[in-house]
Amino acid sequence: MDTIKKRQNAGVRKPDIVRNFYQVILEEGIEGASIGKVAKRMGIHPSLIIHYFQNKENLIVALVDYIIRRAGEIYRELIVQSGDPGTRLRSLVAIFFSEAWYGMSDLGGDFAILSLSGREPRVDARLREMYALLKQLIVGELEKIFKEGGITVRDPKRAAEIIISMYEGYRHFKHFYIEEGDAEKFREDMIASAMAALTNN
Amino acid sequence: MDTIKKRQNAGVRKPDIVRNFYQVILEEGIEGASIGKVAKRMGIHPSLIIHYFQNKENLIVALVDYIIRRAGEIYRELIVQSGDPGTRLRSLVAIFFSEAWYGMSDLGGDFAILSLSGREPRVDARLREMYALLKQLIVGELEKIFKEGGITVRDPKRAAEIIISMYEGYRHFKHFYIEEGDAEKFREDMIASAMAALTNN
Amino acid sequence: MDTIKKRQNAGVRKPDIVRNFYQVILEEGIEGASIGKVAKRMGIHPSLIIHYFQNKENLIVALVDYIIRRAGEIYRELIVQSGDPGTRLRSLVAIFFSEAWYGMSDLGGDFAILSLSGREPRVDARLREMYALLKQLIVGELEKIFKEGGITVRDPKRAAEIIISMYEGYRHFKHFYIEEGDAEKFREDMIASAMAALTNN
Amino acid sequence: MDTIKKRQNAGVRKPDIVRNFYQVILEEGIEGASIGKVAKRMGIHPSLIIHYFQNKENLIVALVDYIIRRAGEIYRELIVQSGDPGTRLRSLVAIFFSEAWYGMSDLGGDFAILSLSGREPRVDARLREMYALLKQLIVGELEKIFKEGGITVRDPKRAAEIIISMYEGYRHFKHFYIEEGDAEKFREDMIASAMAALTNN
DNA sequence: GATGAATGAGTGTTCATTCAT
DNA sequence: GATGAATGAACACTCATTCAT
User: Fold this and answer.
1) Is a pLDDT exceeding 60 seen at residue D5?
2) Which of C106, C176, C192 is facing D128, going by the closest CB pair?
3) What pLDDT score does D145 carry?
């Protein structure tokens, strides 16, 4: 009954290809990812991928878009909208050091895409866009919190930038020098350090 | 006098190949780097590279070793050994946010290698080693500083880990969301935040 | 009329490739046969051969299939279906010592493929199949002959096996120790010996 | 004390290389055998093999010599020199169908070398020599046996040729169509058939 | 006798892509 | 929308061999 896989349209196929491309990158790295492998994985012909994306570069850009879109979704899922200002500030900071945010993407995939950004202007542009958006989200949140009273921060934009730097360093590098057993304690210490850095600012 | 290129020995050729390999990665990314391109760049035959490294994996591992070795050298160049404890603590932190440390390697190259670490155990092992070494250097330095008086930090090891997280996030990601004109000010703010995080610890 | 070489389909190209592969093996031996040489011979690109066969092993297996198929065809061409039992028995034996059967394939090619059988299970399997089929053909023929009367053989299966052993030794090795001038006489003597061995069985 | 492997002379090294070359052929086939693999197997430098044999062809020829020499040795070990003529005739025939003779060399290796004979004149020449020698040994033996009485054979040379054909077919091909359990019975039947063929001659 | 440096041709295979169907 | 034929460049790597040491 169900004519699986045959004769689908772009709306279904294109994101499907992008997802599979991401999987291949995770398994084999950027240098090991190819249109052929994506096709084999999906049981379709490589030419069909070209048919949809024209060339590999377009596929990479589509992948970056896909990843950024997912990051936005996860942020919206995690953000806490109620409670007193002090609690909400801590919650905001905690998001970026949470398991959910950490596990949002695969580090191998992240680094692969980041390594592209230097040579592929469209990738670089999209990453800047993403960070701009994220900064804006944090700033907006901070301003809402501060307006409600008590806490003051001289420069919310700078505060947002410091948060981003801290969590990126934490997120991408901690597994190289933190041991499994110490992970939860380190997470808490990082949040405390971020709060100290923030309110000192 | 100097019969360049012909009949050299492993001691000269191997590091030369590694350096050229790194250049190719910077220019074309991990996915664009090939033994053939390195050979062309050097005016030698690809098989000579195989002669020295047996296969591409070994070459990659040698590159990681080379990069790590350079990081160690730069750290030793930058470390300040005299002055009162307070000044020296700030100098230590400042190293990791300095232009010299930031410019030590190319971010594209860094990400390329980091993206390998998930799939190549030898790369992962070496990176862990490097971070362990770096942590140890910082801890040693912190302990010396604290012993001389005044400043106290509950846990120097944790302090080192927080410094590393902060500077890694700063170093690798800041260019995505900090504008040129604001760079110097941001650098100072990050150092201040790091100090706050540290002494709060 | 005939736009040779361009845009053909698998039905035409695949056997064409197999035939050319066989020729290359005859000329240069298994150790000298390469996909590149086959392609050059056909005026096509090596990757087209990969396109059809995926890898060299598959090509080898296809070649073995091709050779075995040809052996079956030749047997069917040579088999005599009429005459009295005694004559027909002799005709059957004579087939395997005939020029046509001897010249069916090139010995160099035979040995090349036989040498593969130890390391390539699919080649071994196909050779066993071929011998099973041949044995069955001979047994069937012997039984028909015996049923019509006169001649008796205790065990037709064993008789078939002995015939095969004798003609294989004759076919593959005689040229190492029989001189040209003596060839025809030796052929007759071998047929006589086979008959003696058979009816003695 | 024992300076193993270092600084040996040609008398020791050359046969050692040939033996290792044979092993590589057995494991990887003619098409997979290379000087490099032999060298790695022996823990020496490939250049050293070239140093001794100048090129690969010479090594192959040396291997054929080695194999033929071993065949001669085994024949001499197996030949029975006493007993009555009838028993000795049967013993002679039985040699070539014996396990010892069958297992004298690896079939994969045999076929690999036989496949070379068509393209390498020196290999072909040596094989012919070997068969000539073998034929001569058998003829001599048959004549001794016949001289002692009883048994007559019209043409001992032809008889030798028939024996060779039969055992070669048996030796090289039987494993494709004889099952393990039937092997011993088949061996006896082949000997009987050979005797019948012989005394009928 | 033995090794290392170097070459250059050649291996099988992958790759992105184009074109016709 | 989807596949197959075809290409040509590139890939990592192997090979036999030469030469200098």
Assistant:
1) no
2) C176
3) 83
User: Does residue B190 surpass a pLDDT of 50?
Assistant: yes
Contact between A69 and A129 (Cβ < 8 Å): no
Domain with CATH 1.10.10.60 in chain D: 1-54
Q: Which of D53, D52, D54, D24 is nearest to D36 (CA)?
A: D24
Q: Please state which CATH number belongs to domain B64-199.
A: 1.10.357.10
pLDDT of residue B150: 66
Chain D contact probe: residue of C106, C173, C174, C199 with most D CBs at under 10 A: C173
**Is nucleic acid strand E under 7 Å from D128's C-beta?**
no
CA–CA distance, D191 with D189 (Å, rounded to integer): 5
Query: pTM for this one?
Result: 0.90
| A149-177 per-position pLDDT tens digit | 666 667 899 999 999 999 999 999 999 99
Residue D102 tokens read as 């069958």
Query: Which bases in strand E are touched by protein, i.e. have an atom under 7 Å from a CB?
Result: 1-21
CATH hierarchy code of domain D1-54:
1.10.10.60
